[in-house]
Model the fold of this input.
Amino acid sequence: MKYKFASRVDRCEPSATLEVSAAARRLRAAGQQIIDWSAGEPDFGTPDIICDAAIQAIRGGQTRYTAVGGTPELCAAIAHKFQRDNQLHFEQNQILVCAGAKQALYNCFQAMVGPGDNVVMPAPCWASYPDMVRLTAGEPILIPTTQEQHFRPSAEQLDQAITPETRIVLLNSPSNPCGAMLRREDLESYAEVLRGHPHVMLVSDDIYELIRFDGKPFHNMAQLAPDLRSRIILINGVSKAYAMTGWRIGYAAGPAEIIDAMHTIQSQSTSNPSSIAQAAACAALLEDQSSVPDMVVAFEQRRNYIVKALDDLPGISCVRPDGAFYCFPKVDGAMEQLGCATDIDFAHLLLETQRLTVVPGTPFGSPGHVRVSFATDMPTLEEGIERLVGLLD
Ligand code: PMP
Ligand code: GLU
Done:
């Protein structure tokens, strides 16, 4: 049977990050000794206090549909988080709870972007952004950045990328895939650019907010440019900071009219996120926060090891990420040495010959790099480095 698909299917590729992780899982299940450097999630379990809240929710009968945009308790917990961590005030009608930050972003693009519109984002960027934009029939516009500029675009680059068709500028700091964090000065200069383009909204994906190294402070545009608040949508979630990727709770906060449009889309697609996961997310945001710094200390130690070890290898150079749990080494020298035409070939070669998984840079908009996740234990990082040394020396 030859099936006829809607044209939107041709506009987007399967998620590269999820595909590589699935390949690693498949090979491991087949008994292979895989070293997995592809994971886009903490390797820690969800803290007990959060799991207990979920069990209590089940036992207490919180097993029915909730309000589409989240329980009043979780919306209040999210408002509390914004006040506590970011000194930002949101009313409940300015918050939408979704099945992950991914759905929050998806709803946002569906609500704000259409055919002929574009969304501007620095590259490298999370591999799902461009395809989510293409699903709206809009166009992603990538601003290329380099290792030398620590993957932080200049205000001039941002200004030049914006056109009358631009609906949204999308920022992600700390960043997936490179861990770069925008400085206060960067954001202030971007705010000035946005003031010159009043038709443009800003979406700030802050999902890695709490995973930062070297004591660097976190800033987002809503904190630094209160005059732009009516044009800013914040995206966040519990997946990364609380090791809750499987629970699927994320959220958006912004102008009530935009949240309302996103709510309509959610009400006609997935309805509310899991009632049980929402109860767990309440505990994550409100209860003891000490699991977060414990995890961050472990990520920072691993970062210190892996960045130096990669940078010492011939044909590979790597800058220190400020946050998240990824680094994004430039591997063009190693690719040349091994006769790989693309980073996709290079990632394949690592998998085939070394049983080592990394995500190629091309789906993140930055060929010649690969993404290495250090959300894995030290022995796995050390073994991967040994395999690379064997290949490159
Ligand atoms: N934004 C970025 C930059 C991410 O890396 C992820 C990870 N998948 C998400 C959003 C979505 O996270 P989730 O849907 O698990 O909340
Ligand atoms: N954000 C993670 C990653 O980049 C999880 C997988 C995904 O949804 O892309 O690997």
